[in-house]
Write a structure and sequence with these properties.
Elements (H helix, E strand, L loop, with lengths): L1 H8 L2 H22 L11 H24 L9 H18 L14 H5 L15 H25 L4 H19 L12 E2 L3 E2 L2 E2 L3 H27 L1 H11 L1 H6 L4 H27 L1 E2 L6 H14 L5 H20 L4 H15 L3 H39 L1
Antiparallel strand pairs: 1-4, 2-3
């Protein structure tokens, strides 16, 4: 069964993409740890962590592509699932600080001592265990997506109305997490992390492992997403995107199909957030901002929605451009992002990868038509020769 799952997922471009990600997972940490700082091949730790952040964003864009590119659900709230996964990991990292905090309290994090908390809130119980934290990284975004999708999809909310509701959801969460009495650090969020699984978060070796893990998890999620969209379920998924009423008429439970895809996508976004937090060193309510979710849509559109690989490329390219522009021309970054989205919408509606794929398909179709025309001409020539001989 597992071998069949993997076989369905693998195709030429997916194999190449997974191989590249696994190669990066091995090569970049090696160049960081095993080469001298003055070597031309050395990759600084800050650059490795920065690219690790890009890989987390790429996983987030891949999660959105699964629901938008293949199911037709334009979610403007995926930043909420990303942030919830990040907060779950942040809670675990805060519990690892122990008495090494500013106030030296072995149980309460510093922000709780500052805000005069008397005891640890109940929803922090068990978050000092890594297994519980990982479970929450998956369950909290997944449960939110399940509850939200259960009501939205059964009410047949579609199109722009669904997009607005998802954006309202993440905005409401942002306002809630800004409150100090929520127990998540309020405006400052969670930061000042020390250890993860007993290893120093800031150590070069830990940074290298986190980077490699980000690339490996992205490759694994790409494999899972490819298996989903290339299966029979994936064919129905595309049918829901292109002609939902027809799929419903054929007897499929469209709401269940959407719900499953939405939950899987939300869990992938939560994993991206969990990998993001220890590499960046902070998680705050700003990650819930609706503008962040809109940026995810831009990454996916630039790379090419409905291609799986395209959103990964789009997320890396756009965020690399963001790093450059915010450093060299900080006042022009938003203008550059808006111009990029307008350009892609007008001139590259399929995105980078989608346009390239369409070009190859068009060339193959033209070649097939030319060969067929040539074949008919050859048959005509042979017939004329036989007729002349007679």
């Amino acid at each position: 069964m597992i071998s069949g799952f993997i076989f369905r997922a693998l195709e030429g471009k997916i194999i190449v993409a997974i191989a590249v990600l696994l190669g990066i997972a091995a090569l970049v940490p090696a160049l960081n740890l095993l080469t001298a700082p003055d070597s031309a091949l050395h990759i600084p730790t800050y650059a490795m962590s920065l690219f690790g952040k890009y890989l987390c964003y790429a996983l987030l864009a891949l999660a959105l592509d699964l629901v938008w590119g293949y199911c037709g659900i334009l979610s403007l709230g995926h930043g909420a699932f990303f942030a919830l996964g990040g907060y779950a990991m942040g809670m675990y990292l805060m519990r690892q600080i122990g008495p090494r905090g500013v106030y030296g309290n072995p149980v309460l994090p510093d922000f709780m001592v500052f805000l005069n908390y008397k005891e640890l809130p109940w929803f922090w119980y068990g978050m000092d265990w890594f297994v519980v934290a990982i479970a929450m990284v998956l369950l909290v975004p997944g449960l939110l997506a399940f509850v939200f999708g259960w009501f939205a999809f059964r009410s047949r909310v579609n199109g722009v109305y669904l997009s607005i509701i998802t954006q309202a959801m993440t905005y409401a969460l942002m306002l809630a997490f800004f409150r100090n009495d929520m127990g998540f650090g309020g405006n400052n969020g969670l930061t000042d992390f020390k250890d993860i699984l007993g290893f120093q978060v800031q150590a070069d070796g830990t940074r290298a492992v986190l980077f490699a893990l980000s690339a490996i998890v992205l490759a694994l999620c790409l494999l899972i997403s490819s298996a989903i969209v290339r299966s029979k379920f994936g064919k129905v998924l595309v049918g829901v995107r292109d002609a939902e009423s027809r799929v419903r008429f054929l007897g499929f439970r469209v709401e269940n199909i959407k719900l499953f895809t939405f939950v899987v996508s939300a869990m992938m976004a939560g994993i991206a957030g969990a990998l993001f937090v220890p590499q960046v060193g902070i998680i705050n309510p700003g990650e819930f901002a609706p503008a962040n979710s809109i940026e995810i849509v831009v990454w996916t559109a630039v790379g090419g929605r409905g291609t799986l690989i395209g959103p990964i490329i789009g997320a890396v390219l756009v965020n690399a451009g963001k790093s450059f522009f915010t450093g060299a021309f900080p006042e022009f970054w938003l203008y550059a992002l808006g111009s990029l989205f307008i350009f892609v919408t007008l001139f590259l509606p399929r995105g980078i990868v989608g346009t390239v794929q369409h070009g190859f398909k068009a060339r193959e179709a033209m070649k097939a038509a030319t060969d067929a025309e040539k074949g008919r001409a050859d048959v005509g020539t042979v017939a004329q020769t036989v007729q002349a001989a007679e």
